[in-house]
Write a structure and sequence with these properties.
By secondary structure, this protein is of the alpha+beta class. Helices cover 18% and strands 46% of the residues.
């Protein structure tokens, strides 16, 4: 059986990310990013269901601060799901969708 289909495009993107939450204040590196969340490395000490605040800057130089929750852990990575009510997630979604559209245009 396979997992649920992803609804949003993802892209590989290494960003410096500041992670804060209850008892947590550390730095991570993103691996993949979508409008719905991101995978992070160097923070495998985070617990599933931990609420976090992520601060990072997109390559478009747009600073982003998002609320999220640690959704999964695998190997030395964690996945953070952005809070769907956080309006800043649209900034990430627009960036990723724009990059995907640009890549599709170049492919044709």
């Amino acid at each position: 059986m396979t997992g649920p289909l992803r609804r949003q495009p993802r892209m590989h993107l290494a960003l410096d990310v500041k992670v804060q939450g209850p008892g947590v204040d550390c730095n991570a590196t993103s691996v993949e990013v979508s409008g719905g969340g991101m995978s992070l490395e160097r923070v495998d000490h985070l617990s599933i269901a931990l609420p976090v605040v992520l601060d990072f800057t997109l390559p478009s130089a747009e600073p982003v601060r998002l609320n999220g929750v640690v959704w999964w852990k695998r190997d030395r990575m964690v996945g953070v799901r952005f809070d769907p009510a956080d309006r800043n997630s649209i900034l990430v979604r627009r960036y990723v969708e724009g990059q995907a559209a640009a890549a599709a245009t170049k492919a044709h």
